[in-house]
Amino acid sequence: MMDKEKLRKADIFSGGVIMLFGVWIISQAIQMPMKDSWGGVQNVWYVSPALFPLLVGAMITLLGALLVRKALHTVGRKGLMDVLNWLGSASLVHYLKTPAVFRFYAMTVLFFSFVFLNIPRIDFFLCAILFLIVFITMFYFDDDALLKKMLCFYLIGTIVFLAFFSLGLSDTLEASLPYPGDWLTLAFIIAYCIYVWTLIRSAPPLRKKYRTALILAVVAPFTIGPIFKYFLLVPMPTEGVVVAALDALWYWDF
Amino acid sequence: MMLFDRIGTFFGIVFHLASDPLNIAILFGSVLMGIIFGAMPGLTSTLGVALLTALTYGMDTSLAMVCLLAIYVGGTYGGSYSSILINIPGTAAAAATALDGYPLACKGEGGRAIGLTTTASAIGTTISMIFVVSISPIISFFALQFTSFEFFLLAFFGILISGTLTSPDLVIKGWIAGFLGLFLACVGRDLLQFYPRFTFGFSELDSGVEVVPVLIGAFGIPQIIQVLKDRFQIGETQKLQRIIPEIGTVIRNIPAIIRSALIGVGIGAVPGIGEDIAGWVSYGTAKNTSKHPETFGRGELKGVLASETANNACVGGAMIPLLNLGIPGSPPAAMLLGALMLHGVTPGPMITFEHPTFIMEVAAILLLASLAMFVTGLLLAKQVVKVLRIPTQIFMPIIGVLCIIGSYSLGLNIFNLYLMLPVGIICYFLTEMGYPIAPLVIGVILGPMADENLRRALMVSQGSFMPIFQRPVSLILFIIIVLTVVSQFDWYRNAKNKALQRILNRRNTCETILEEDESER
Fold first, then answer.
1. CA gap B182, B177 in Å, rounded
2. Measured between beta carbons, which residues in chain A are less than 8 angstroms from residue B393?
3. Under an 8 A CB cutoff, do B400 and A44 touch?
4. Which of B124, B290, B467, B518 lies at a 20 to 30 A Cα distance from A53?
5. ipTM of the assembly?
6. Cβ–Cβ of B455/A212 closer than 8 Å?
7. Residues B267-303 pLDDT 10s
8. What is the largest CA-CA distance in chain B?
9. Average pLDDT over residues A209-221
């Protein structure tokens, strides 16, 4: 959490956004049936589906306005101007490039690519291994310069994946090679591992961390995954080459 | 006779649960897992309950409750390990424990402190269990008299009080978080007319937002981002000697332990307020009532006993409104509510009719969990402490994978992940700006109850709000809500202070006149 003075300045904006959000809720709620008929039933205001959203929207708008008022009262006009000036200055750009913010970007990119791009298309085990290798190496090495390089490499890979799936290459290749997305992911995992090795090979302490990261990134999915898949009977979000191999092993008639 | 019947039923359930080896294995396994989750800074008992909920999906309700309550009890207690040994509370609930626990560890009495916290936590949980059994029938009886207005006001009160007491910054922010939770609860087709609200054409949103993925996102993702963004590092661990329960010290402090347990149960029973507040209030009370308050903060055993007894007593306290009113008493209890719903149990006044022995079963599990925690704490503490050596950069990504597979497995729906992640990111920003997350979660859970009961109440009264003022419970709840709100405003505080000042002045004037009269006589 930020310190009190910064919080009050941030409150002006968070309160403003919340107030606008409340107004949006109200604007959506008033489009819901209030007194008119819905589904053949003549409505009255107190059973309208809009009643509760209107109450919630009104309260959010009111509380947002109160927060803005309180924040403005505390920081004053000068405080507001300081924030506006900061927003238009080079300090904002400088802030957006700080190591802490970069770490936030890295996590956001990893989570969003994992959830929205990889999980629906790639075998769960492979995308979990990729996620863990990248995540652990980025943060366990505790080096911001390395993190930037690894993030760039991962971003390039993500763009390749995006192109591969959005251009329909996956479907085209499927006819000749089963699970093309999975093989591409495997290739990317190997490429990433080699790239990271080239980055850290001259630093013995990082080499030890690298080994640990690789082992855990493989062991964790192969511990968590089978528990869900074979003991709790939860099918994986996407089942590809690894699940097919595990299935063959699990259901093998000895 | 009825009392003996209840006691008989209770011990029958305890025996039945304890006689099944699977129950015992799950109980000890979950307590141990809870202790590890509690001990690891960055992980919380709420997250532990959230992640384990996914694993209990295939279990029967009774076994699932053993699993979830055991991790809750273990997680609340486990926070004391890192508080005592590295001066970083494993959970917010153990923050007060660090004040005296760490100085004790620095003096070489870490083992003694952990032994005492283990005993105090077990006693706290057991006392709270007694309250669950004894108070629940009374609350259930009163709750059966409640009409829709009372339930609407109760849900509203739960969100407001949770926002008021959990906000780390301005109270308004706690309320805003609560109403944002209520908004999320509005998403989906409304229960009375089936009208789609805020669904944007997504059929996946028709049944509303799934509670468990939202909870996992709200508690898990911000935690991961915060820990890794701020480069949180676990400090050097103090050495741990032999762990002994010190029964003599416990017996000497029995009145203080009972007082702390009562504080814990009381605070736990207030909707949405967690173990952290119970720990602090109990610690403050112990300090204020001590003959030597100056020793607090320098390794005072009573401080450690007070906070640990209260935070574990809070577990049972949180069960009371959860089971009888369907209102979670703490964030982990909110997770438990989600888990109970998954297992087809709807907590509320009807629970005693629909599942007659369920409350007894919960109490029996609490008793067994406190015993398991006591045994595990004394025997395995030295091994558990080793997990504090695992770097956060390693376990946080693995927790991320668990959050994702856990959210997906509840309903086997990838859309749950699409929901969980944005909620998690938004909750991270809210946390950074001083908005508490607990009221948001309570809002998501209590939203349908508030919405449905408000409209049902108005249907019965033909659109009139007068029943609020005509029914005693509604009126009391309404007055409490109004007082909770207005007490946060400066003009109310000024007016109250002026009125108090005027009363004091008048009293002083009267006393002066009386003294003058007496002296004249």
1. 9
2. 136, 139-140, 142
3. no
4. B467
5. 0.91
6. no
7. 888 776 778 788 888 888 888 888 888 888 888 888 8
8. 88
9. 92
